[in-house]
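G., the chain you wanted modeled:
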Amino acid sequence: MIYEFETDCAAQTIALGQEIGARLTGGEVIAYSGGLGVGKTTITRGISLGMGLGDEVTSPTFALVNEYQGRERSLCHFDMYRINGGMDLETTGFFDYLDGNNVLAVEWSENIADELPQDCIRVCIERVDDNTRRIILDGDERFADIGDRYKR
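Predicted structure as tokens:
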């Protein structure tokens, strides 16, 4: 199912991320697409809040992965900008994180498209203007009740 949202500021993008994060149970892979600076880390900050992990999320650009530990599940935030397929991916430890307790948020997921699970949640973020973002989520019915405040 495809859900389309629009946010007018970073705070709204974080709030939308919270709504998404609150619906995650562990084992999901969120595959982001979108250019530099569109808000992939911003929405991940909201997802972390929705999962009850706090808002200290930073871009994993240089670390490749940042882990945010929780009691019941953890968020693993990947940056695949410099990864070119399965062989490079193996060196990141990506496959070790694919278990029932982790949620993986993957920036630049198009670089590892062939390695992503078939049932991953796809989130495309587009810049409309300096503040506004169009966010297209391809996921299941648990995201249907996020509400009209972000719907286009």
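Strands lie at 2-7, 29-33, 65-68, 74-79, 102-107, 121-127, 133-138.

Shout if anything looks off.
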